[in-house]
Amino acid sequence: MDNKAIDYLKTCKTIVVYGFSKNPEKLAFSIPMFMKSQGYNVIGINPQKFEVEGIPVYNKLEEVQESIEILNVFRPSEYCLDVVKEAIERRKTRGDIKVIWLQKDIVNNDAKKLAEENGIDFIQDTCIFNTFGLLKKMR
User: Fold this and answer.
1) So what CATH class is 3-138?
2) Exposure b/e, 58-68, CB count within 10 A at least 16 = b
3) What is the reported pTM?
């Protein structure tokens, strides 16, 4: 486990979930809802703009008004390079997004390289829910 991941969960409070789902049976719904229940400010990104239990869901990163700290990605690996490109554009205009965090089993080394070249930390193949569980055990 990367201690950097735990540190982000200790210090960051705003998580934008790229690929947020309104389907309660999907992890892209249940994990963000859990993180919200733990006090994190959760915001979603999905091509279908909607709201679920007080969580606003936007079409694109540029629509998010809050400062983004963690960009948690629930998209297939092959789409992650495009997500990183969108995040880099956002960072250039807004100066936010501390880390791009790909969920368990999502890996894209080209996306990792591009993010890091642009000053954004990158975590991949790591479940934010499981990392939060490790953080709780440490307290």
Assistant:
1) alpha beta
2) beebeebeeeb
3) 0.96
CA distance linking residue 118 with residue 122, whole number of Å: 11
Least confident of 49-53, 87-91, 122-126: 49-53
Tokens standing for residue 24:
């309660």
The single-letter DSSP state of residue 67 is P
Between CA 49 and CA 46 the distance in angstroms is: 6
Q: What are the sequence ranges of the domains in the chain? A: 3-138
Dist. CA 85–CA 111, nearest whole Å: 8
Condensed to tens digits (0 to 9), the pLDDT of residues 9-37 reads 999 999 999 999 999 999 999 999 999 99
Distance of alpha carbon 6 from alpha carbon 27, whole angstroms: 20
- Is the backbone of residue 53 left (phi > 0), alpha (psi -120 to 50) or beta? left
pLDDT digit string, tens, across residues 79-121: 999 999 999 999 999 999 999 999 999 999 999 999 999 999 9
